[in-house]
Amino acid sequence: EETVHERMAPFVDVPVIFASALTKQRIFKILETAQEVYDIRKMDKLNSRDGEFSPMLLGKDQLYFNSSRKEATGDAKSPITGVKNNDFFILKQDERGNWLKPDSLVGGLNTEFDEGTASFAIDGSQMYYTFCPEGERCIL
Questions:
Q1: Dihedral in degrees, nearest 10, Cα atoms 101, 107, 108, 112
Q2: Which one of 61, 93, 132, 140 has the minimum C-beta count within 10 Å?
Q3: What CA–CA distance (Å, rounded) separates 117 from 66?
Q4: Residue 111's closest CA among 94, 127, 134?
Q5: Residue 88: which pLDDT band, with cuts at 50, 70 and 90?
Q6: Range list of H helices, 17-132
Q7: Among candidates 46, 44, 50, which has minimal Cα distance to 65?
């Protein structure tokens, strides 16, 4: 188990269960663990009537995501989806662990065009994302 976690780094918070599909050994343990790990529920602070996608957790208290919610920059609609273009938003936790209201990401990243999926360097110092200006090829 330790060797598997070493090879999976930095994703060490994932449970590892050794099972046998041939003998069906530990199948119930897998199902029980899956229910514990994947507690899916609506987050009123995150979910809007518009599209949200690509959540990216940075540290333990910042969740970045994309959304076409009404606060997104501009009024242009995506020729692909037909809805408002997406912007980056950030959801932060307070000192008690409660999620606060999402804010539009500042710093010039949000434009009237379509900002897409983001990821971060392991140390959080750099953000990588897709950017799709209308009528041009997407820039990665």
A1: 0
A2: 140
A3: 7
A4: 134
A5: very high
A6: 27-37
A7: 46
How much is the average pLDDT of 72-93? 87
Q: Which residues of 52-82 are buried (b: 16+ CB within 10 A; e: fewer)?
A: bebebeeeeeebbbbbbbeebbeeeebeeee
Joined tokens for residue 63:
């969740």
**Does the pLDDT value for residue 90 go beyond 90?**
yes
Q: If you compute the radius of gyration of the chain from its CA atoms, what whole number of angstroms results?
A: 19
Read off the pLDDT of residues 109-121 as tens digits, 9 standing for 90 and up.
888 888 888 888 8
Reported as type and span, the H/E element at residue 4 is: helix 2-8
Residue 109: both structure tokens together: 């990243």
Residues listed for the chain: 140
Helix (H, G, I), strand (E, B) or coil at 57: strand
Q: Residue 128: beta bridge partners?
A: 119
